[in-house]
Design goal:
With 153 residues, the chain is of the alpha/beta class. Helix content is 22%, strand content 34%.
Length: 153
């Protein structure tokens, strides 16, 4: 019998991080530098063979527009097809509230609860990290993406 687990996906930039949680504790993880459109189907093929997914969680942005779109469509489809709830949290939760690259010298920053873009000259390296413990109350059922930036002219 397959273990029932929760899955967390951070697919906003490279590397993609996927955490497997049992009883709210991180028990397994996957990291890849491949593109989300190619990596997610293969990773989830392996995960679904090994585990039964109870809940899906993901970082819904801001970040790479295409990466957010691909991960959302993939996870939303998986959620519907497998009757598994999909939850989301902004990406700042996974990088200790550091600026996230938007385009050129524009970065997404989170000011209290508002996300804006700011021009920054010196920015610390942004890296995302899976949490060791999954806190359900840190996520929302409102899973639509946070794209955060319109067309740049």
């Amino acid at each position: 019998m397959r273990k029932k687990v929760d899955i967390v996906v951070i697919a906003l930039s490279s590397p993609i991080l996927i955490g497997v949680y049992k009883d709210n504790k991180l028990i397994d993880s996957v990291e890849t530098d491949e593109k989300s459109s190619e990596a997610l189907p293969l990773i989830f093929e392996d995960l679904l063979a090994k585990y039964e997914i109870k809940n899906l969680f993901y970082a819904n942005g801001p970040g790479s527009f295409m990466a957010i779109k691909v991960s959302y469509i993939f996870l939303k489809s998986l959620s519907i097809l497998n009757n598994v709830p999909l939850y989301a949290r902004d990406a700042f939760y996974f990088n200790k509230n550091q600026p996230i690259k938007a385009i050129a010298k524009l970065y997404f920053v989170k000011l209290t609860t508002k996300i804006e873009t700011q021009r920054l000259e010196n920015v610390p390296i942004c890296s995302f990290k899976l949490h060791d413990v999954l806190e359900y109350d840190e996520f929302t059922k409102e899973s639509t993406p946070i794209y955060g930036i319109g067309a740049v002219g």
